[in-house]
Amino acid sequence: MQVKTGHPRPTARLVCRNVWKLFGNRPKAWLERHGPSPSAEALAAAGMVAAVRGVDLEVREGEIFVIMGLSGSGKSTLVRCLSRLVEPSGGEILYEGRDLLSMSEAEIMQIRRHKMGMVFQHFALLPHMSVLENVAFPLEVQGVARGERDERARRMIALVGLEGREAAFPRELSGGQQQRVGIARSLAADPELWFLDEPFSALDPLIRREMQVEFLRLQRMLHKTIVFITHDFDEAIRLADRIAIMKDGMIEQIGTPEEIVLSPATPYVTEFTGAVPRAKVVRLATVMVPAEGPAPARHLPADATVAEAAPAFRAGADRIGVTDAEGRLVGQVHRDAVVDLMLGG
After folding, report:
1. Rounded to two decimals, what is the model's pTM?
2. In the chain, which residues have pLDDT < 70?
């Protein structure tokens, strides 16, 4: 998640156009009769409950796209619509240019097996299988030969830091270790698109933070296209390239963590982000000025947050250098700019 300049925007891997999920009497037929954007009054009169309402979004190749909202906002229903684990009532969901909603069950099953990985809040490990067998299970479903699937499973187990626990059973693992097995299992088939629905919310706070660090480490290595669901804004700003905030089944705003916090689009987003410390989300690239005079003694990358720069200022620095992805000095940040930001300027 480094600052990128002078490069074309990444390709949209997954695109939603006016996606709806209604619960009621024959919702697909009702939606076809009432047009692409029925009113709340029409929905209520028909006894329809809208879990997802007219969602438009795109997930770009290689990004972590976080969908967040409070309980009941529709975020988990939406992510299940994206993989057709839940059947949408209307709209289009394009994956690599193909509409998932026009595919047969057999076609969507093949895409889930070979293109998509999924991790959910509840680990859903098979209790009678060892760690190795759990991780290799998706490959067994694909028909991969025993030797190859065990080799690939061992690589994934090592990747998530569980080497040496291949023979253990789920009951012998901690919650964090079980979640690592779930992550390894979802990665075993080398998915291009990775869905994670509140994967860390059942973990203790310390283990949860460790798993967030581990998740970012894996993403730096694997460069997956990721849709990550959470209700925790601290988790969202720590992980996200972009965030979509949902309320009552609708998208309130999509943007980078900085855009969401500094330029909220609706009163709900303003309230939702009101308690978030700006220093946690504002990048040095936003507050830097051109470098002048002798080079500062301390440098940080442009995508580091102001909070990450705070220790240097506490140690007495009056300015720090800002570098690009190649390590070149591109600007500097002054103590006064940080103080102004912290005070709401």
Report:
1. 0.87
2. 1-9, 123, 344-345
